[in-house]
């Protein structure tokens, strides 16, 4: 495999495929296509940082580091800069060179919904073999198992390219024990286990990461997409070229809007016009510049929302308003409890390691708002008005699970998912408040809850997992070296706000629970909002302290065009 910064390797040349972005998607697809004998050029804006311990040492990275990080600015609706920046990988390996490395599988219900959204074939049964093929799972050893790690071998691959394992040694086993005890008290019904990839029976477990333990150096090492698919000695390819430190400007189009190649330029220039080069693709161009950069490439190429293209002075080729719309990330924050003096130096409770989130929980809606007699879900079920309204939605092709009088109505979920914001709002109007949204979110976890330790604290980081709020990313000019304008609009939707407040309250309850009695000196340390704090107080704090959880999706959505989609089920 050729990895180079030399423009001449690509300028004016023709390849079977050209790929924009050497991150998770670009490297994986580039590896597979070149492995089948196609000539492939991957153009990556960032450098090769394989030498950098911040990238290869799994614990070498500090939170907020600028190495290999775009740190995109984020804006409010009012055009003002937000106080936090957006982390996104900016070197070979993309975000897998800087991410939290947390590894677990989605549920079948979640994956199957991608298909019902209008994407034939995108379901659990078809995707599961690829999950198996990607992974080389290293089971926990006896010490790790004794400390709460577990492994269900049949929910892992064992011969793939990405190493996954528990860290050596496991982090804060004493505190994790307490978390495992306390979490089900606060989230009744939460199933604690050892392996979070076993999603049929486990929703809280010690964390596995995309890492492997190097016995020579005694360090945990990051297993990035580059590690698995580019640098690995047994993955070298005669026909794969990676051009680093070059930015893809546009896709070149021929007749019938067929992609014929790309224009690109060195990443360190400031005026693009004089330094733009072209490379040609005989079979296809693949955009994999990440969820916040692929949409801008499309817009610069003349594909997007007409008003955006017009104000950037770009000639329109395709009117596709979904480009850059529908952006969403999970709004995260963290709440801290002060650890009592006696435990301040106990490394089984508090440590200084930078592997994120030793225990992770995925909270279902009925664990956040328990389903008890008299709770709103039973109220809703007994309300005739909602039943008939919901029936109307079902008749219109919506997917609604209505639990009432022992009956469960299930239907296609097309409409409710694709228009879920609209339908959620119409249900709101019927019943007021967010509670009715319960109807459409029963099947998937709605909060991710990470149990952690700080320097003198224990803390929980958390976020609504399926936010209904939507933001956008668009170009501001035709200059490919300018950052796009990203407007996240986190926590705009009332349902997201309700989930956020409930998660924040629950985090305090965890540290105020009996298992933490001896360990915690102040469960309400930061924020200093006590047990009687109002929802408004919690929400105000949440909005002030929140950041994007770095799981951005949506700007080039795969779904039918009439629903706002950008690519079809074959990613075209
Ligand atoms: C801080 C952080 C923590 C995360 N934690 C986790 C985690 O713990 N577990 C998990 O599963 N996921 C995590 N993720 C998410 C995961 O890493 C991403 O979902 C995944 O890497 C996305 O893959 P991608 O190929 O779409 O984009 P990326 O991997 O980001 O790759 C995109 C590449 O395109 C390049 N590029 C951008 N613009 C251009 C251009 N114009 N021309 C050429 N190249 C360009 C970028 O430099 C980058 O290398 C995290 C992400 C971040 C940022």
Fold topology:
Layout: E1 2-4, E2 14-20, H1 24-35, E3 40-43, H2 53-56, E4 72-75, E5 81-86, H3 108-116, H4 124-134, E6 135-137, H5 142-146, E7 162-164, H6 173-186, E8 204-206, E9 211-214, E10 219-222, H7 225-231, E11 240-243, E12 246-253, E13 259-266, E14 277-287, H8 294-300, E15 303-304, H9 306-311, E16 318-319, E17 331-339, E18 359-363, H10 365-368, H11 376-381, H12 384-395, E19 402-404, E20 407-409, H13 414-418, H14 420-431, E21 447-453, E22 457-464, E23 472-474, E24 485-487, H15 494-512, E25 520-526, H16 535-545, E26 547-548
Parallel strand pairs: 1-11, 2-3, 2-14, 3-11, 6-7, 15-16
Antiparallel strand pairs: 4-5, 8-18, 9-10, 12-13, 13-14, 17-22, 17-25, 17-26, 18-21, 19-20, 21-22, 23-24
The structure holds flavin-adenine dinucleotide.
Description:
With 572 residues, this protein is α/β, with parallel strands linked by helices. The protein folds into two domains: 228 residues, FAD/NAD(P)-binding domain (3-Layer(bba) Sandwich), CATH 3.50.50.60; 207 residues, no CATH class. 25% of the residues lie in helices and 22% in strands. The protein has a seven-stranded mixed β-sheet. Strands 8, 17, 18, 21, 22, 25 and 26 form a seven-stranded antiparallel β-sheet that branches. The protein has a two-stranded antiparallel sheet with strand order 4-5. Belongs to the GMC oxidoreductase family.
């Amino acid at each position: 495999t050729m990895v180079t910064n030399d423009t001449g390797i690509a300028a004016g040349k023709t390849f079977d495929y050209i790929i924009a972005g050497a991150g998770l998607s670009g490297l994986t697809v580039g590896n597979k296509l070149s492995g089948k004998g196609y000539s492939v050029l991957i153009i990556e804006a960032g450098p090769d940082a394989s030498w950098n311990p911040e990238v290869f040492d799994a614990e070498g990275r500090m939170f907020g580091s600028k190495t290999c990080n775009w740190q995109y600015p984020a804006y409010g609706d009012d055009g003002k800069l937000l106080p936090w920046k957006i982390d996104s990988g900016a070197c070979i390996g993309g975000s897998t060179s800087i991410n939290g490395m947390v590894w677990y599988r989605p549920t079948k219900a979640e994956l199957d919904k991608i298909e019902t959204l209008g994407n034939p074939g995108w379901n659990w049964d078809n995707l599961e073999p690829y999950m198996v093929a990607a992974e080389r799972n290293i089971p926990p050893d006896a010490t790790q198992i004794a400390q709460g790690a577990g492994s269900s071998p049949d929910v892992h691959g064992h011969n793939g390219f990405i190493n996954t394992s528990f860290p050596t040694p496991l982090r804060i086993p004493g505190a994790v024990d307490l978390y495992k005890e306390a979490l089900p008290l606060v989230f009744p019904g939460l199933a604690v286990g050892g392996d979070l990839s076993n999603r049929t029976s486990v929703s809280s477990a010690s964390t596995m990461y995309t890492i492997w333990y190097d016995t020579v150096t005694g360090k945990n090492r990051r297993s990035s997409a580059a590690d698995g698919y580019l640098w690995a000695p047994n993955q070298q390819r005669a026909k794969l070229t990676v051009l680093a430190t070059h930015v893809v400007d546009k896709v070149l189009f021929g007749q019938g809007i067929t992609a014929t190649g790309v224009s690109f330029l060195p990443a360190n220039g400031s005026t693009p016009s004089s330094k733009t080069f072209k490379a040609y693709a005989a079979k296809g161009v693949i955009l994999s510049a990440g969820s916040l950069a692929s949409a801008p490439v499309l817009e610069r190429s003349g594909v997007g929302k007409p008003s955006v293209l017009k104000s950037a002075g770009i000639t329109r080729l395709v009117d596709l308003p979904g480009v850059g719309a529908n952006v969403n990330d999970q709004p995260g924050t963290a709440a801290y409890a002060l650890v009592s003096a006696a435990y301040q130096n106990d490394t089984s409770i508090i440590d200084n390691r930078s592997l994120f989130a030793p225990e992770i929980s995925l909270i279902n809606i009925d664990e956040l708002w328990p389903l008890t007699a008299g709770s709103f879900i039973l109220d809703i079920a007994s309300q005739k008005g909602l039943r008939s309204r919901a029936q109307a939605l079902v008749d219109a092709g919506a997917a609604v699970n209505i639990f009432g009088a022992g009956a469960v109505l299930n239907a296609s979920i097309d409409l409710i998912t694709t228009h879920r914001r609209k339908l959620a709002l119409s249900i709101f109007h019927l019943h007021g408040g967010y509670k009715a949204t319960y109807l459409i979110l029963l099947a998937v976890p709605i909060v991710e809850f990470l149990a952690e330790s700080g320097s003198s604290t224990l803390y929980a980081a958390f976020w609504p997992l399926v936010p209904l709020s939507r933001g956008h990313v668009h170009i501001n000019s035709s200059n490919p070296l300018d950052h796009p304008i990203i407007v996240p609009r986190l926590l705009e939707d009332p349902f997201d706000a309700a989930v956020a407040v409930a998660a924040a309250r629950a985090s305090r309850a965890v540290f105020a629970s009996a298992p933490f009695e001896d360990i915690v000196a102040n469960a309400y340390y930061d924020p200093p909002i006590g047990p009687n704090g109002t929802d408004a107080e919690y929400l105000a704090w949440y909005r002030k302290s929140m950041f994007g959880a770095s799981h951005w999706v949506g700007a080039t959505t795969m779904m039918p065009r009439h629903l706002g989609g950008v690519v079809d089920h074959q990613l075209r």
